[in-house]
């Protein structure tokens, strides 16, 4: 009928999309029909029932080619006509014709000779798409206007099918701050489409629309009028450069141009690092005129062997089906990019489509019909895991997975198995019963990651049409998500995937990490911290600030000197006449009054210098609280959620179950099962809050201050129940006799304890409440609540300050003498916004948003910075504090303010923060030449990237297989690369240190001061053989028979009794014996160590070092190697280094690292050079004929590190009878075998030493340490740091200005390192200081006796003390000190014990160091102390007269005065 109305041939017919067929009986009621003809004309018909109106030619379409397609969405949308030559023409709606152009026709695509096909509008009618062969074109329509140009993406094959997803993802992003209106928001839409190709591929495309809608356009126009001086070049607009609901995946059946890194698309932690764009680049990429790439490929499915005939999305766009002429239909998940299900038939597919209830309706040409039920619920519950695993198997070449028995059952049950196993092991690991997770769980987890199942387990499945449909993580599987991120990041770093713009190398990364670790102040955000303090300084609590005299207070704020350790201040805590400083690395220092051991430095003495708390060294402290009254106690909260306490323990306020005083911080073991997020110390009680909202209190229970409903004392933390049982508590503050806590995100505040003066704020003065009472506050949200002595202060979210309690602290003029029983606003501060508050017992500080510091209350010690001690009734500005102050603290009699920004650290999450807020250094230091070519901003971004990797490692290290020589075939994804030394070297040193110290603290025997008692006969070590009588051998036999757990102590692993000597081991004897054992090993005792071949040949590196003896394989030597490992572990745990000189190769092997030929060459350069020359022989000189004569190598043997010839193959013992020459053809194989032998030469010795190490320290953590770091932990600093000694010096009988003290430091600075080592051994019994000086457990005590002029100095090694007499000049002092340190290298106190011990009295009966052995034995036989035979040394026997048996002490030395004794329990003597 239509044909009769048109004179030319009709080539296409189209109905507007807005007109629908009603039903089969009614036909079409009324609709328009468009027809295209072969001459390019387009006609419009009106259909009404069975009547057809006369045709009306649309004269706007004048192209003369054949019309191939017409697309019309209705009268309100453009009408698009396609022609056979590829031309595409659009006619705009007449009602919206633009005024600037009279013609409403647009040429969308020029004629190119290829027909335009598959012309489609997306679901929102904003994007028009069409194809020309393999090219896919997109054009955006905004506000009835086409936004040109056309974006075209090319494909390598012709498009045969196309479909738009009916859904789209919507998200919104804020514009710049200059657009304040809520309507000025920019909507981002992500649309998905699919194209089928003649090659059988199905490709998914994303189209990102980020152009303003009508309202946004109007806002922009208004903005241009009101802000003419602002243009698009300075406005930043966010653009999505990838749809957040699509996972980019590559597999054998799903391929893409970008690989899946396993991370959330919305995080900044992508697997490959990219430098940040400059501001101009960001602006350019964000401009609406230059939007980010609109169309890009998501992934490619390769699921058909023939041409794809049709593709179709389901109703919500989460799945897509594709069919081909071969009769195969594949269903894919859009979000997971995997093949879900396949339907096959022998006949070609006629058509298929999705039904609303999730059915796929398929018609085949054979007249068969198939319907498949496929829904999101079915896929997620039954198919998702198997589909993802199948994709990974295909990617790795496993195509016969369907033949694997029970494959689907195994995959379906793996999730439940992993979840159950993780829950079973988590309790043991979190409580410290296990260090890491089991190998079984590691195997399951890595199998799941290799199969890609973390993608299904860690994220909720969401459809693209849901608002905010991002990859939503599942909290239960957060640990697996982080572990997968670590694997991907490690894989990226091990492959070293570089950005083409900045080629960072491992050397550059190592220098960046070292710069950050050693010069952290360079990276501090906001620059160097400035600290201001004022008030009383009677005990030296004002850090670094010297008042006119020690007894006078500082009347007003004084800025501290800008020098370490003040430049890295994070937090300052003012207490009762003491001050604590938390540094950037989490370490803590203290100064001030030391009564009751409140400083935690090991003594109860005052300290006027900032002294590190060595017990907390290596741990990351995020908060510290100290009492403001009573005898003083303190608590420190670690970032891992653990709590340490120290100081006075009366009433059980330390939480250890007793009332004992703790001189150093001790872990509160009762809280190990909890994750603590807040702590507070009152005068006589303490309180902690856990991450799950529980409140625990302990200490004195008078007045009900514990809130437990009773007045009894609690020596262990006890949870407050009652009304708080179901509440989520977030913070707590303890005062003198009352406490206050905040819960429910600040919406509720409770108080309990003494209510005198109404300080509880519950409306009842002078009433004690044994249980928490809810405060009816006038504010909605409480940000902070603090307890003073007779008042309580509240900081509201609105910046207002409220107070209750004694009226004199009200800070308001309208409050006279009445009690404030409910919180009332401080009226004098109503005009300012208060950011923070701090309180002492009787004064209050308030910091405003503008940086002004207000204070009121008691100024008796000038703690308010006023020049008169008058009481300050109303808040007044404290002069001298600059506006840049960011944090404040108030103590009992002093106050502090500082400029560093509070780091956003969350305690109790078990996560240590390795990603601080970084600043920008001014320049690159000269000592980092690899970085000089990079800008500071690029280096900063790289450091942030590396810190993020360190954070990932810390969060997930317990799941990593860190044991060396473990088959990694089941852990092959990235575990082997994690153990590479390159990755260890770019880890933050803080990672291993924090993990090591945390593990040590949890496994230390807290109650013991020293381990079991052992006995040493130093006489026997001089007379018997080195293998049996040495000190090392004596202790080995005794220690290995002990319970190893008793040796895991932080001080002395054992107490040494020297048989025949009078020294009493209080620490110094232990140190000296440890040093003597190492010196014995260096001299060849027990045959465990041998000098490096380079040392013997005097060539190459490491000439002064040793390696393990590969011939030490006897059962006794294996036990001794294990004991040596125990010694190493004790050195780490006690932080008392030993001076063992091992080659770097040995340290690398001890960490589990893989050694290379270069490592072997560092200890045996000559032999490796021979092997290299053997491979590089000139064939013109050495050939097959003369090779045997010139290179007579035996193929069955090689040279060991000891210089011996050893068999390469144990089955063929090397001898002259089986000599097999190496030939020219076999030389490569021979060299490879020799290298393999030398790389594994020390395997059994290393294994035994590591076994001993593992008895004392957590062995897996050694695999995270670098070889250099392990050496520093065991051996300490190679040079004696005099500055460190001076930093830890404590003076008695003088001060640092005394001439003798000045001479001492000058002399020590002038010493060479060998002399410094002798001095250190003289005063402490050891030869090394810790590499981290903050780990020094004792102060260096300098006692100026001034009793005998120009006498020899003496020392007490146990107490790290030297006793100096008076000296007439510096030169005399130098000579006396040198004589002492060179002639006294062992502990001896026989003179001191001579008249207290009959044995020692017998030993002193000889003259000139000789005595008769028989008379000595007879004398000893009558003593009741002990009896033992004393053999005569060979040297003494040689000098003895005939018929006598004599012993000479120090027989290898010439007769001289008895050495200066470095006494352990008393001052040394000169005899």
Features:
1471 residues, alpha+beta, five-stranded antiparallel β-sheet, 34 helices, 66 strands, 24% helix
Walkthrough of the structure:
The chain is an alpha+beta fold and 1471 residues long. Strands 1, 2, 3, 4 and 5 form a 5-stranded antiparallel sheet that branches. It has a 5-stranded antiparallel sheet with strand order 14-15-16-18-17, with no helix packed on it. α8 crosses α10 and α15 (1031-1039) crosses α18 (1115-1134). The longest helix has 24 residues, at 407-430. The C terminus is likely disordered.
Number of strands: 66
Mind summarizing the main beta sheet? 5 strands, antiparallel
The Cα radius of gyration reads 41 Å
Averaged pLDDT: 78
How would you describe the shape? globular
Distance between the termini: 134 Å
Helix content: 10-25%
Number of helices: 34
How much beta, percentage-wise? Answer: 25-35%
Low-confidence stretches: 19-28, 96-102, 172-185, 212-292, 465-469, 561-565, 905-910, 1210-1217, 1390-1471
Structural class: alpha+beta
């Amino acid at each position: 009928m239509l044909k009769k109305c048109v004179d030319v041939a009709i080539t296409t017919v189209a109905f507007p999309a807005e007109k629908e067929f009603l039903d089969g009986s009614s036909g079409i009621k009324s609709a328009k029909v468009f027809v295209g003809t072969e001459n390019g004309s387009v006609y419009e018909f009106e259909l009404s029932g069975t009547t057809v109106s006369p045709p009306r030619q649309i004269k706007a379409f004048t192209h003369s080619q054949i019309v191939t397609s017409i697309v019309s969405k209705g009268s309100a949308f453009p009408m698009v006509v396609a022609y056979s030559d590829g031309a595409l023409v659009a006619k705009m709606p007449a009602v919206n014709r633009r005024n600037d152009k009279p013609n409403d026709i647009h040429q969308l695509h020029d004629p190119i000779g290829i027909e335009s096909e598959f012309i489609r509008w997306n679901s929102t009618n904003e994007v028009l798409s069409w194809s020309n062969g393999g090219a896919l074109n997109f054009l955006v329509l905004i506000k009835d206007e086409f936004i040109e140009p056309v974006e075209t993406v090319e494909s390598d094959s012709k498009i045969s099918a196309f479909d738009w997803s009916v859904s789209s993802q919507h998200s919104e992003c804020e514009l710049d701050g200059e657009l304040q209106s809520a309507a000025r928001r920019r909507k981002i839409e992500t649309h998905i489409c699919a194209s089928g190709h003649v090659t059988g591929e199905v490709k998914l495309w994303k189209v990102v629309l980020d152009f303003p809608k009508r309202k946004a356009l109007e806002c922009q126009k208004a903005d241009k009028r009101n802000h003419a001086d602002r243009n698009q070049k300075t406005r930043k607009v966010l653009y999505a450069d990838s749809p957040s609901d699509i996972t980019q995946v590559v597999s054998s059946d799903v391929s893409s141009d970008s690989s899946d890194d396993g991370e959330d698309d919305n995080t900044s932690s992508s697997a490959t690092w990219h430098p940040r764009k400059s501001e101009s680049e960001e602006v350019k990429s964000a401009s609406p005129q230059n939007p980010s790439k609109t169309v890009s490929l998501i992934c490619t499915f390769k699921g058909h062997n023939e041409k794809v005939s049709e593709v179709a999305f389901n109703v919500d766009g989460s799945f897509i089906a594709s069919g081909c002429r071969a009769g195969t239909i594949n269903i894919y998940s859009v979000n997971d990019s995997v093949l879900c299900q396949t339907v096959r038939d022998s006949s070609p597919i006629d058509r298929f489509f999705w039904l609303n209830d999730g059915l796929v309706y398929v018609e085949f040409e054979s007249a068969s019909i198939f319907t498949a039920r496929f829904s999101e619920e079915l896929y997620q519950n039954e198919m998702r895991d198997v589909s993802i695993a199948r994709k990974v198997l295909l990617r790795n070449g496993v195509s016969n997975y369907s033949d694997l028995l029970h494959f689907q059952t195994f995959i379906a049950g793996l999730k439940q198995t992993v979840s159950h196993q993780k829950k079973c092991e988590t309790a043991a690991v979190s409580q410290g019963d296990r260090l890491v997770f089991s190998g079984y769980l590691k195997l399951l987890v890595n199998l799941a990651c290799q199969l890609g199942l973390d993608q299904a387990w860690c994220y909720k499945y969401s459809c693209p049409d849901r608002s905010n449909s991002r990859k939503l993580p599942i909290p239960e599987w957060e640990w697996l998500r982080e572990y997968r991120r670590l694997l991907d990041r490690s894989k990226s770093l091990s492959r070293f995937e570089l950005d083409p713009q900045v080629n960072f190398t491992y050397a550059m990364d190592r220098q960046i990490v070292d710069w950050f670790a050693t010069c952290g102040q360079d990276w501090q955000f906001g620059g160097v911290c400035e600290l201001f303090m004022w008030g009383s300084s009677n005990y030296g609590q004002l850090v670094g600030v010297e008042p006119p005299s020690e007894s006078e207070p500082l009347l007003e704020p004084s800025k501290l000197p800008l020098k370490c350790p003040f430049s890295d201040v994070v937090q300052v805590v003012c207490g009762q006449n003491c001050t604590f400083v938390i540094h950037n690395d989490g370490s803590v220092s203290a100064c001030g009054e030391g009564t009751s051991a409140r400083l935690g430095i090991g003594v109860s003495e005052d300290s006027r210098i900032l002294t590190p708390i060595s017990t907390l060294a290596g741990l990351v402290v995020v908060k510290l609280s100290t009492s403001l009254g009573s005898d003083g106690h303190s608590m420190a909260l670690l970032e891992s959620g653990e709590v340490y306490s120290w100081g006075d323990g009366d009433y059980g306020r330390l939480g250890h179950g007793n009332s004992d005083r703790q001189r150093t911080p001790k872990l509160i073991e009762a809280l190990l099962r909890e994750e603590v997020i807040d702590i507070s110390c009152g005068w006589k009680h303490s309180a902690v809050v856990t991450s799950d909202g529980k409140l625990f209190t302990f200490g004195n229970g008078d007045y009900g201050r514990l809130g437990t409903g009773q007045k009894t004392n609690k020596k262990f933390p006890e949870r407050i129940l009652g009304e708080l049982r179901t509440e989520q508590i977030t913070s707590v503050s303890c005062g003198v006799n009352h406490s206050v806590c905040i819960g429910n995100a600040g919406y509720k505040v409770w108080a309990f304890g003494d209510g005198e003066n109404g300080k509880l704020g519950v409306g009842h003065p002078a009433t004690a409440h044994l249980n928490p009472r809810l405060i009816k506050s006038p504010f909605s949200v409480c940000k902070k609540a603090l307890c003073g002595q007779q008042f309580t202060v509240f900081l509201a979210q609105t910046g207002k300050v409220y107070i209750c309690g004694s009226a004199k602290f009200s800070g308001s003029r309208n409050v006279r003498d009445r009690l404030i029983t409910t919180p009332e606003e401080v009226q004098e501060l109503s005009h300012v916004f208060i950011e923070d508050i701090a309180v002492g017992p009787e004064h209050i500080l308030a910091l405003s948003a503008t940086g002004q510091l207000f204070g009121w209350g008691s100024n008796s010690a000038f703690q308010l910075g006023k020049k008169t001690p008058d009481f300050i009734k109303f808040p007044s500005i404290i002069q001298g504090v600059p506006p840049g102050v960011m944090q404040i603290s108030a103590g009992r009699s002093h106050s502090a303010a500082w400029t560093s920004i509070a780091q956003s650290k969350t305690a109790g999450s078990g996560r240590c923060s390795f990603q601080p807020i970084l600043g920008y250094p001014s320049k690159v230091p000269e000592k980092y030449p690899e970085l000089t070519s990079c800008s500071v901003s690029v280096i900063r971004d790289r450091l942030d990237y590396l810190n993020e990797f360190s954070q990932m490692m810390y969060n997930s290290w317990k799941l990593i297989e860190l044991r060396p020589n473990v088959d990694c075939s089941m852990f092959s994804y990235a575990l082997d690369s994690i153990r590479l030394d390159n990755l260890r070297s770019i880890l933050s040193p803080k990672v291993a240190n924090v993990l090591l110290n945390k593990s040590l603290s949890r496994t230390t025997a807290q109650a013991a001061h020293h381990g079991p008692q052992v006995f040493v006969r130093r006489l026997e070590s001089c007379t018997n053989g080195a293998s049996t009588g040495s000190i090392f051998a004596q202790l080995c036999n005794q220690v290995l028979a002990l319970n190893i757990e008793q040796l895991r102590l932080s001080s002395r692993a054992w107490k040494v009794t020297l048989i025949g000597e009078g020294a009493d081991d209080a620490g110094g004897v232990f140190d000296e014996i440890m040093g003597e054992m190492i010196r014995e090993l260096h001299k060849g005792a027990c045959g465990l160590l041998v000098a490096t071949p380079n040392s013997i040949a005097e060539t190459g590196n490491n000439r002064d070092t040793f390696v393990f003896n590969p011939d030490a394989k006897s059962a006794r030597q294996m036990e001794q190697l294990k004991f040596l490992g125990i010694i190493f572990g004790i050195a780490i745990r006690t932080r008392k280094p030993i001076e063992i000189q091992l080659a770097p190769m040995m340290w690398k092997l001890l960490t589990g690292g893989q050694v290379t030929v270069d490592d072997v060459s560092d200890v045996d350069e000559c032999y490796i050079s021979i092997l290299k020359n053997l491979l590089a022989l000139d064939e013109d000189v050495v050939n097959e004929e003369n090779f045997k004569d010139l290179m007579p190598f035996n193929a069955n043997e090689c040279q060991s590190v000891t210089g011996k010839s050893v068999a390469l193959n144990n089955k063929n013992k090397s001898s002259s009878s089986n000599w097999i020459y190496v030939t020219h053809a076999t030389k490569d194989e021979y060299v490879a075998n020799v290298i393999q032998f030398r790389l594994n030469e020390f395997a059994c010795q290393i294994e035994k030493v590591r076994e001993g190490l593992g008895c004392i320290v957590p062995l897996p953590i050694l695999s995270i340490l670098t070889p250099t770091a392990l050496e520093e932990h065991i051996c300490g600093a190679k040079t004696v740091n005099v500055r460190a000694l001076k930093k830890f010096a404590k003076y008695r009988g003088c001060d640092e200005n005394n001439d003798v003290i000045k001479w001492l430091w000058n002399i020590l600075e002038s010493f060479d390192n060998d002399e410094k080592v002798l001095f250190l051994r003289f005063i402490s019994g050891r030869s090394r200081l810790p590499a981290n000086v903050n780990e020094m457990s004792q102060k260096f005590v300098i006692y100026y006796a001034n009793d005998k002029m120009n006498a020899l100095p003496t020392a007490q090694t146990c107490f790290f003390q030297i006793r100096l007499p008076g000296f007439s000049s510096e030169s005399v002092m130098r000579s006396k000190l040198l004589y002492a340190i060179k002639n006294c290298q062992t502990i001896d106190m026989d003179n001191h014990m001579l008249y207290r011990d009959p044995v020692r009295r017998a030993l002193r009966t000889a003259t000139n160091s000789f005595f008769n052995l028989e008379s000595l034995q007879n004398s000893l036989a009558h003593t009741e102390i002990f009896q033992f035979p004393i053999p005569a040394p060979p040297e003494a026997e040689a000098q003895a007269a005939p018929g006598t048996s004599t012993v000479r002490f120090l027989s290898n030395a010439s007769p001289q005065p008895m050495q200066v004794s470095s006494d352990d329990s008393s001052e040394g003597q000169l005899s």
